[in-house]
Write a structure and sequence with these properties.
Blueprint lengths: L12 H14 L12 H8 L3 H13 L3 E4 L3 E4 L20 H8 L6 H4 L6 E2 L12 H15 L12 H15 L8 E4 L1 H13 L5 E6 L3 H9 L3 E8 L2 E2 L8 E6 L13 H14 L2 E5 L15 H4 L5 E6 L11 E4 L2 H15 L4 H12 L2 H25 L6 E3 L7 E6 L7 H10 L2 E2 L1 E2 L9 E5 L5 H15 L2
Parallel strand pairs: 3-14, 5-6, 5-8, 8-9, 9-10
Antiparallel strand pairs: 1-2, 4-11, 6-7, 10-11, 12-13, 13-16, 15-16
Helix pairs in contact: 1-3, 2-3, 6-13, 7-13, 8-9, 8-12, 14-16
């Protein structure tokens, strides 16, 4: 069977194939029970690597759109029947109605991106390149982890498997100057769970919490859910303005290595000032080490946790940016004073994390595959960063200035003084030419500009997209 699939060589091949196969199934053009071509045959027809086709089939299997039948091939599964329309529910009076309404009103700006399709050339931030995921290595370690699990118990400790905590502690000591051992590591379901645990343990109704402005939107929602009073602290070219920190704050959230969304790094002077402030006030500093593994220039800056001598810094990291968001694996390096409370909160939240993935990641890191993968990612993202900087120095120079960033896979661009360009309108126009743009105002910025992520767009795609943006801006 020949499938009508068109491959654009300038775009990620696997993502194109997956998207088109998914569309054929969901639209009904590939009917329930239809057999897909063998991976080798489809790869030959499309001029792709067989592994690329196999990975697309594997994703479709995970999404329950196809099923593999041993010795026969892959077949389209029946799509779930659409639920019949239900009558409007009768209003029910609940004693907790006010609390329910408060949660319904919480800001969740990133939720709208979850089911939204990406543009062909999309500058979404915080999203790594799926094509860089080390499928072969990961599959090998996953299979080994399955064998290992068959010989062990059913549950992992709330803090996470010891082997993974040891691997994380060793990596952070080497790569980020963090002072920790396995006992300090709590493995979480992504960085977001780490933030949730810290906020729940540290603040209650009426307590003051300081966050960067502009900053990471989900932190605002977590704090509001606890009833905290939020102090928005400005960010300049040296990072968080420590002189503006309120003296009564219980915690401060910051992204010192690569500020979200402006991309600046916190200066050494500000780092020392922040730690001095925390020592004076007794507050806890949440250090979000957002995508700092991808460093392109200069010497690595010391982590706040590595400089901390008073046990005030909770260091949070994640494998969502370096490997894949779908793994939902992160960690917090907990100060001694918080460790037991965080472990109790973690146990009450989910008892323990996914043992299979923790086993696989522990093996992946211990073998050195993680560091090898990071080097490959830095090389690829470095090429994309160079292409982005070249475009802003060339075609977009009349309208926008790209803010410097030493690390990470996004940079911020500000409209030049005197510009009357509206970022929201520009983003809407860009969508019409298949370019995804994200205004800084969506992250609380008081300056007109754009967040330019380059995790999901190839170097050639960056050049093509910036050309289209320049055409939209041209008089």
């Amino acid at each position: 069977m020949d499938l009508h699939i068109v491959i654009d060589r300038s775009q990620p091949l696997g993502e194109q194939l997956l998207r088109q196969l998914r569309g054929l199934i969901r639209s009904g053009r590939l009917a329930t029970g239809a057999q897909l071509p063998p991976t080798r045959l489809l790869a030959e027809q499309l001029g792709l690597a067989r592994q690329t086709v196999a990975e697309a089939y594997e994703r479709l299997t995970l999404e329950q759109l196809i099923e593999a039948r041993r010795g026969r091939g892959s077949f389209v599964r029946a799509l779930p029947a659409a639920e019949p329309e239900r009558p409007a529910p009768t209003p029910v009076r609940l004693a907790s109605a006010a609390r329910i309404a408060a949660f319904q009103a919480l800001p969740v700006p990133l939720l709208r991106f979850a089911d939204s399709p990406l543009a062909r050339w999309d500058f979404i931030g915080g999203s790594p390149e799926p094509a860089l995921f080390p499928h072969e290595d990961w599959r090998r370690h996953l299979h080994a982890a399955q064998r290992q699990m068959s010989q062990g118990g059913a549950h992992a400790p709330p803090a996470g498997l010891l082997a993974l905590r040891e691997a994380i502690a060793e990596h952070l000591t080497f790569a980020r100057g963090v002072r920790c051992s396995a006992a300090d590591v709590i493995v979480t379901q992504g960085a977001q769970q780490a933030f949730d645990l810290l906020v729940r343990v540290l603040v209650g109704p009426g307590d003051v919490a300081a966050i960067e402005s502009p900053g990471y939107p989900p932190i605002t929602g977590l704090l509001q859910a606890q009833g905290a009073r939020i102090a928005h602290v400005p960010v300049d070219e040296q990072g968080l303005v420590t002189d503006a920190l309120p003296p009564d704050a219980r915690l401060v959230y910051t992204t010192p290595a690569h500020q979200f969304p402006l991309g600046v790094a916190m200066s050494a002077v500000r780092r020392r000032a922040l730690l001095d402030w925390a020592a004076r006030t007794g507050a806890v500093v949440i250090e979000d080490d957002y995508d700092s593994e991808f460093r392109f220039e200069g010497q690595p800056r010391d982590s706040l946790q590595g400089l901390d001598t008073d046990g005030r810094v909770a260091f949070v990291g994640s494998f969502s940016k370096t490997l894949a968001p779908s793994l939902r694996l992160g960690y917090v390096i907990a100060p001694l004073a918080l460790r037991d409370a965080l472990l109790h909160a973690k146990h009450l939240a989910d008892v323990h994390g996914p043992r299979l993935l923790q086993h696989a990641l522990a093996r992946f890191m211990a073998e050195g595959a993680y560091r090898k993968h990071l080097r490959r990612c830095v090389a690829e993202y470095g090429l994309r960063r160079e292409r982005l900087m070249a475009g802003f120095a060339g075609a977009l120079a009349p309208w926008l200035t790209l803010l410097p960033a030493e690390a990470g896979f996004h940079q911020a661009a500000l409209f030049k003084a005197g510009s009357d360009i509206d970022a929201t309108r520009l983003a809407a126009l860009a969508r019409r030419v298949d370019v995804g743009l994200y205004p800084l105002q969506g992250f609380g910025a008081d300056r007109d500009g754009l967040l330019m992520g380059f995790g999901r767009i190839t170097p050639d795609g960056i050049a093509a997209a910036l050309t289209r943006i320049a055409e939209l801006l041209a008089p």
